[in-house]
Prior knowledge:
Strand content: 5-15%
Order of helices and strands: HHHHHHHHEHEEHE
Shape: elongated
Largest sheet: 4 strands, antiparallel
Strand order of the largest sheet: 2-3-1-4
Radius of gyration: 25 Å
Helix content: 55-70%
Distance between the termini: 47 Å
Number of strands: 4
Structural class: alpha+beta
Amino acid sequence: MQLAKKASSSFKKVSLDSSSLAEPLTKLGAIFLGNLLCSIAFNGFFIPNQLISGGTGGIAIMTYYLTEIPTGLVVFLLNLPLFFVGAKIIDKKFTIYSFISMITLSSLLGLTADIHKYIEIDDLLLASIFGGILNGVGMGLMFRNKVSQGGLDIVAAIFRKKFNMNVGTVLMGVNTIIVASSSILFGLKPAMYTIIALYIAYQIVDKVQKGLDTKKTVVIISKNSEKLAKEIIGNLKRGVTFLNGEGAYNNDNKKIIYCTVMSTQVGKLKDIVEKIDSDAFITINDVEEVKGKGFKDIGI
């Protein structure tokens, strides 16, 4: 009996240790892969075609064009003061991982400096599109795992925490100002193509961060609310809340169903409603973010 208890406690300890180890390994993996994609976007697509990018990376590229100071070094120096702000306002763990990410980005920018020799693209539009895609996927992977590259990503995380604004929206707004400034130095044409690259990147950021399977809120008014609720809970495995309502026309009391489902479950939900009460009134709306049991956190 005692041996069984010891074995059980040892098993629990091993499980706990492995689960606690999984999070940092996932974050570090996202940091490496995300920054590798961003470095390839910078050195393979942006810099050879004199595109700017945004954030501290964009400022670093502008500095490189003017002084030939390595982009990795400039990124490092620009990021240092922002980490102190991030540690105070956002989260120390987030800031530590972002610092590791910044070091990784600086290193990978140096290691991939000559990658443009293997990616010969003379078309500015293609460079903008594919550079934007790589940059967006890289940043999105990190945001989804609650890490960033530092710099303006920290500013975007602060805006998300304080004002619930999309990370991509904040970054697009701030970086448009940076790119507009670059047009004074390098002309309007590269700046316009850079804006295309940024728009693509930050659309991808929001898609990767939220995931491909979006969420929907559903409101159903039916005379068979309780039966519908049981079917939704049983078949879709989603929680249901009853809201007390009153019809304005005949003043009858109703139980209104409120629930949140994945977009892939909407078709099945409609079938359930049609089967039980074809006269039910149903509204379905997109959801920006869901936090709670049964739904994954989207990260930053």
